[in-house]
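A favour, since you know our C-alpha cells better than I do. Just paste the record in under my message, thanks.
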Amino acid sequence: MRRVSLIGAASGWGAGIRETEDGPLFLREFGLAEQLRAAGIDARWAAMVEPERRWAAAPAPTRGEVDRLVAAHNAALAREVASVARRSLPVVLGGDHSIAVGTWGGLARSFRGRFGLIWFDAHLDAHTAATSPSQNPHGMSAAVLLGHGAPEFLAIGGGVLRPENLCYVGARSYEDGELALLQRLGVRIVFMDEVHRRGLAAVAAEALAIATAGTSGFGLTIDLDGFDPEDAPGIGLKIPDGLRREAMLGALAPLACHPRLAAIEIVEYVPQLDEGKKTAELVRDLLTTLLAPAASRPATRARTLVPVA
C-alpha cells in the first residue's frame, strides 16, 4: 500500500473569498490524517505551505501584488509536491483552485512521461487576464496548465498538461472566453446536464479513459464547489444542481487504489461556511473511497462498477 503525503496549500489570495486559506488548517485539526489511518490508509501530513499573510487592516494588494503572492505560494507548493511525489502519493488540500498551478507543475517535475487530469468542478478555471471578469487567479489555473496565462504562472506549471488528456466533469458556471479557449484546444467538457443524462459513473469512466490515454498516470482535482451546496455547504461559490455525494463516491469507487493514480487535489474548502463539519467529512470520505482497502471504504447507496478503458 502506498504511503500518502498530505500537503496543505493554505492559499486564499487567488480567490474572492480569502477564507479558503483556512481550509487545510481546519482539516488538520479535524483529524483528517488520523481518520484516514483508522481506515487503513498510511497517511501523514508532509507540509503546510503557508501564504504570505497580512493584517486585516493593511491596504488591499494591487492586482500585480496578488499575482506575485499567488506565484510565490505556487512555487513553494510545486517544490513540496515534487519532493514528496518521488516517494509517496501527494494529496494536496487547498486553499483556492489557483494552487492547481503548483500541484500539477510540481508533479510534472518528478513524473516520468505525461499525465492526464480529471477536473471535477462547477467552473472551467480556464481564463486568462484577457478574458477574466474578476481577474482572480483561481479562475486561470487550467489555462496555465494548458500553456496559456501570465509568465509568472507559466514558469511554475505552464504547459504540463495536454488538452487531449484533460476532462472536466460537472461544469455549469463559466464565461464565453474560457469556453472558447477550451473548445479551440479540443478539451472534453462534460457539462452537468450530460452528467444527469448519462449518470456520473459512466461519465467518470469516460474521463478516466481520456486521462489515461497515452499517459503514464493521471490525477484528480476536485473543487468542492462542483458539489451541490446541500452536500458541500462549506464553499464560497454555491452553484445549485451540482454533483451529489453518494453518486460521486460510487463513481470514484472504480478508481480506488488505481496503480496509475499520481496525485489528488481537493480545493476551495471554507470552514467558516461549513455546517456541522459536513464538508470536512465529505473530504474524508472522498479520500477514503479512493485510497482505503475495500473493507474500509464508506458505503454508498449505489456503487456501480463500470469497465475502464
Remarks:
- The mean pLDDT is 93.
